[in-house]
Design brief:
Layout: H1 2-13, H2 20-33, E1 37-38, E2 51-54, E3 73-82, E4 85-94, H3 100-112
Helix pairs in contact: 1-2
């Protein structure tokens, strides 16, 4: 449940002009404030608490200082360690209004996971 809640917090932070570093910081603070640990942080040298993949980055992008632009699509992947267990979740979000083709892609890939 905590991973899902953290993903919802991350999703609410997605907007044009916001950096993925800022989203990562919000997620990190949310997770740690609940007594959990962001599993990606330090794993195999990974430097952040979440993975953020913008547009054509396939997976496990590293949050950075590039501001999101209107129409960007963003996958946020979170794993939370709490009570000896890892909770892993991921979802796509839109910064502003995506292009119709990007929206169709996100909807089709979502349906494929159901």
């Amino acid at each position: 449940a905590l991973a899902r809640e953290a993903l919802e917090v991350a999703g609410r932070a997605v907007a044009p002009g916001v950096t993925t570093d800022a989203i990562d910081a919000v997620v990190h603070d949310f997770i740690v404030a609940r007594g959990a640990y962001p599993s990606p942080l330090g794993y195999a040298g990974f430097p952040k608490s979440s993975s953020t993949s913008v547009n054509d980055i396939i997976a496990h992008g590293i949050p950075d200082d590039r501001p999101l632009e209107d129409g960007d699509i963003l996958n946020i992947d979170l794993t939370v360690f709490l009570g000896g267990c890892h909770g892993d979740t991921s979802s796509m979000f839109y910064a502003g209004t995506p292009e119709p083709r990007d929206l169709r892609l996100c909807r089709a890939t979502h349906r494929a996971t159901l």
